[in-house]
Structure formats: C-alpha cells, structure tokens
Design brief:
Helix content is 33%, strand content 24%. By secondary structure, it is α/β, with parallel strands linked by helices.
C-alpha cells in the first residue's frame, strides 16, 4: 500500500498543558512527551493505547489544533512552523472526529456541512461547481443526493460519520487523522465504515493516522502500529509483527486482552492482567512511565527513560530489559 516516500514526519513532539494546582501555582501536564514517527505516502499508521495516553492529542497537535510545546512536524519534507505553513498544510491534512453526534453543526444542512471547507479555502467557482462537488463527495461515502437538504440529527450514527468523512475529503487531502472514528458506532456499522476507509484510500491515494483503542479494528486497517503509554511511544512495528511478536510488556498485556473467536485458542491464551492504576500524567513516575505496573521493572527503570530504539528491522521498542524478557 505505502510507496516508501515519507509524507508526515514527527520528531520529538511535545504537548504540555499548564494545570492550575492552586495558590497561583501551575504544573505542566505532559500529554505528549517526546513522540517520534513517520508515515509513508499511502500508508495507514495505527495508534493505540489506553484512554488518556495522549493518542488524540498527538493527532490534534500534528494538525496544529493545539500549538506544539516542542518538536518538529514535517509534511513532504517541509517544516510546518509559520501561520502560512499551517494554512497550506490544512488544505492537505484534515481530521475525522470521534463523535459523529457532536462534531456536526445541528443548524446546518448536510450540503452546508460538507460545503463549508470548500467555502473556507475557496476551492470552487460559483454555486453550480460547489453543488456538483458536494454531490460527488456524498457519492464517495455512500450518501444519496436527496440527503443534501436534510439536517444531521435526522441521520443515524453511521450516516453522520459518513457526513463527517465527506467533509474531511472536501479539501482533497493527502493526509487524514482518524480519531477513533468508529468507537461511537454499533459493531455492525463499524465494519462498513472501516471498509469504506480502505476503499477511499485505494481510490484517492490517502494516508491515515488511525487512532483507536480497539486492537482488532486497528489490525484490520493498519500497515504499521504504534503503541502509546502515558504520553510516550513504547513500541512501533509492522501490524502483523506487533500482533505475532509484541516485545514491550505493555503491548503484550494489551494483546493478551484481545478476544479470540476460537474457544480452544482463547482458553490456552494467558491473560496478562496489569496491576495498579495508570499514573496521572501530572505526576508521572521517574524513568520509564510504565514501571509502576510492569512485572519486569528493576532499579534501572526508575533511574532513566529507556531509549526508543530499533531492536530488529522496523521494530522499535522503549524498554531497558527488552532482550531479557523476550529471549
């Protein structure tokens, strides 16, 4: 699927939010803390992890919906920094939001919702061309032309998400951040929407950052998968490689919880249950952020953050004891 030409490159990305702790004091909440990865043209990178690990913040920061605290974001090799860079980048990069109920304006018709990016970026000349483009976008996502004059509240969740996807395609983007786009939908609808993402990728040559917590969904759509924990990336590899040979203790635990349809295999599988709660990003543990819940933690884990390094071709892990654990 991917063409081995890097489209998006993220280097040491940081996103800190200042939180008031009372008495005129504030403390940085490190939502994203030194994340690096690249996505090739035409590829889908899946980003997984528990709620609150910083997945969505990564997606929003890449698109500059949040101003990055630190690090670099490059698109086609060009650093996105100035206002004009961001404006140009937004014509080529869009987002599909998680909740199809709250991300669409209830006072606008479907036609106006999908047409809004066309108006903002002045992409069509005259009403006729605008209307033709809106109907073309609706056709891409399986909506009929008679839906154009209706309002978002008249549609089911799956149809609303299709409206959101059509809106994200309006600027003819190269790159789309999909922020848990199917988690609010019924399981039967999820498969349809994911297959549609696949078809649109083949048809329009799209590149996705696909954020989700459902590992089966991610495996189905992703070429590579990155695992996040408490603002940091702990593992990144080819989708099948991460499923068959997870190396980080956190990835191993996540994958042990994925339901298996075969009862015999399911019984043989050992669930790795993590003890303790996720620490607050306001008071993250020293060294490795996962050490307070890791059964392999040692003194070194408390002293320093393990480097995120390549342990085999294309397989990156941040763990001091990765070789001992997986021997």
């Amino acid at each position: 699927m991917s063409e081995n030409k890097t489209l998006i490159e993220v280097k040491d990305l940081k996103e800190y939010f200042n939180i008031n702790t009372g008495m005129f004091r504030s403390k940085p909440l490190k939502a994203v803390d030194g994340v690096s990865f690249s996505i090739n043209k035409g590829e889908t990178l899946g980003l997984v992890g528990e709620s609150g690990c910083g997945k969505t913040t990564v997606g929003r920061t890449i698109l500059h919906l949040y101003k990055p605290t630190g690090g670099e974001i490059r698109y086609n090799g060009k650093l996105i920094k100035s206002r004009s860079d961001i404006k140009e980048f937004r014509k080529k990069a869009t987002m599909v939001f998680q909740d199809p109920y709250s991300s669409l304006n209830p006072r606008m018709t479907v036609s106006d919702i999908i047409g809004e990016p066309l108006d903002v970026h002045k992409l069509t000349k005259g009403k006729k061309e605008r209307q033709e483009r809106i109907l073309e976008l609706m056709d891409y996502v399986g909506l009929n032309s008679e839906h154009a004059a209706r309002y978002a509240h008249e549609f089911s969740g799956g149809q609303r998400q299709r409206i959101g996807i059509a809106r994200s395609l309006a600027v003819n983007p190269d790159f789309i951040v999909c922020d848990e786009p199917v988690s609010a939908l019924d399981v039967s609808i999820q498969a349809q929407v994911i297959n549609m993402f696949d078809e649109l990728q083949d048809k329009l040559g799209l590149t996705y950052l696909f954020i989700a917590h459902d590992l089966l969904v991610v495996r189905h759509i992703s070429d590579r998968i990155a695992v996040m924990y408490l603002g940091r990336m702990v593992e990144l590899a080819d989708a099948n490689e991460i499923y068959d040979h997870p190396l980080h203790p956190y990835s191993q635990s996540l994958l042990s919880a994925v339901p298996v349809p075969d009862p015999k295999v399911a019984r043989a599988n050992k669930r790795i249950v993590l003890t303790g709660d996720i620490p607050s990003p306001l008071n993250a543990p020293s060294g490795c952020p996962f050490r307070t819940r890791c059964r392999y933690a040692c003194d070194k884990c408390a002293e320093s953050m393990p480097p995120f390094e390549e342990v085999s071709k294309g397989h990156f892990v941040a763990c001091h004891r990765v070789k001992e654990i997986n021997d």
